[in-house]
Amino acid sequence: MPVRNTTYRWGVLSQLFHWLIVALVILQVTLASLADDLPPGAKKLALLARHKSVGITILMLVILRLLWRQLNPIPLLPTTLKPYERVLAHTTHTLLYVLLFTMPLSGWMMSSARGFPVSWFGFFTLPDLVPKNRSLYEALLTTHETLAVALAVVVTLHVAAALKHHFWLRDDVLRRMLPFTTRTQGPKT
Amino acid sequence: MSRLAALAVLATALLATGARAADAPVTHFVLDPAKSSLEFTFVQAGAQNKGRFTRLQVSFDHAADNPAASRLDVTVDVKSLDTGDQERDDTLRGDELFAVAKFPQAHFAASQVAKTATGYEAVGKLTIRGVTHDARVPFAFRTATENGAAVGYMSGKTIVRRLDYGVGQGDWKATDQVGNDVVVSFALRLAAH
Fold first, then answer.
1. Could you say which residues from 40 to 69 on chain B have a Cβ atom under 8 Å away from some Cβ of chain A?
2. Measured between beta carbons, which residues in chain A are less than 8 angstroms from residue B90?
């Protein structure tokens, strides 16, 4: 399987970015909900510290992923798509990138506004993005939570579309993002 | 005659000793709270965080010519801690950390001050959360005359290992999220009293 994308298949690196971010987003939701259920204390602090480190990791991965996307061909959408479906697909993908970028960014800003510097797994401390300000923190907390709901909605749409392509339309849209599968509609190499 | 001479020598010696002791000037200083700060820096979740104590009392008997005769006594109202976050402050005041309801004060009493190459070192006992350990706190001290009054500036920095004093019970005994080493730094303005 090639490292780079082709116009009919995602390459190794793009797939790695995709599935790694999937795994980390699931981890983020888990860490956040575990922390939410706890009273203030050492355990909550530890979970939130991990949540922040993983969030910063996602932010770095998303930036690298977008750069890599610029340097690669993008697999084409199936020609069977109706115009509104193409628009929907592009919108969903754009929103996913925007949300994956703004989720960690709003979390980072939230920590800065609270006056809690963000550390990446204890290796280094990130600069504060905004000055300490309680009402700004409250606003950013609401923003972070709202973006999380939006991400959940868009991810649901994305997964539903992938499954529809695979099981109903029976095209290779899902398969070309899966490792270890060679059955794609692209030219044989 | 010899007895008289001996008595005279003794009396002279006693007088001289007394005079020397009285001559060694001891200045009593107390804190000028408005121009003093007592801060602490700790690692929380991998990042440096800061806090301070806003209420403390300091008594410093400064024997300029005889540091060993100097005395330093510092009492900190632990409840006055301020890390800039209400929730965190309340957590710190709670039973598993400073337990301020039971141990409202931290206390440092130095019965001896030693001269060092770079300044002074207060040698005494530090009590936090009801636990007392020997402690040596290095500090710099200089005196000045401001508006005709004698003032002293005392500053320094020392590391306190919070778990030595039980500041961190239960889950807080772990040091992966909140470090054991707490850097305590002070810059105090003292007024002769």
1. 44-49
2. 40
A49·B49 Cβ contact <8 A: no
Of A53, A114, A118, the CB nearest to B85: A114
Q: What is the sign of the dihedral through the CA atoms of B80, B84, B90 and B91?
A: negative
Under a CB-based contact definition with an 8 Å cutoff, are residues B76 and B105 in contact?
yes
> Residues in chain A whose beta carbon is closer than 8 A to a beta carbon of chain B?
40-43, 45-46, 48-49, 52-53, 114-123, 125, 132
What is the per-residue pLDDT across A170-186, written as a single tens digit (0 to 9) for each? 888 898 898 877 665 55
Is the pLDDT at B3 greater than 70? The verdict is no
Of A42, A48, A115, the CB nearest to B174: A42
CATH number of the structural domain A12-177: 1.20.950
B144 is written with which tokens? Answer: 């000045």
Nearest residue of A to residue B92, measured between CA atoms:
A41
- The answer to whether the CB of B122 falls within 8 A of the CB of B157 is no
- Tell me the domain boundaries of chain A: 12-177
Residue A48, pLDDT score: 96
CATH 2.40.128.110 fits domain B25-192? yes
Strands B47-53 and A124-125: what pairing?
A: unpaired
C-alpha distances in Å from residue A130, one per residue of A105, A146, B33, B85: 11, 20, 31, 16
Considering only CB atoms, which chain B residues are within 8 Å of A118?
Answer: 47
Q: Where are the domains of chain B?
A: 25-192
Which residues in chain A touch residue B178, judged by CB atoms under 8 angstroms apart?
42, 45
- Is pLDDT above 60 for A49? yes
For the stretch B168-177, pLDDT in tens is 999 999 999 9
Q: Is B46 left (phi over 0), alpha (psi -120 to 50) or beta?
A: left
For all residues of chain B together, what is the average pLDDT? 90
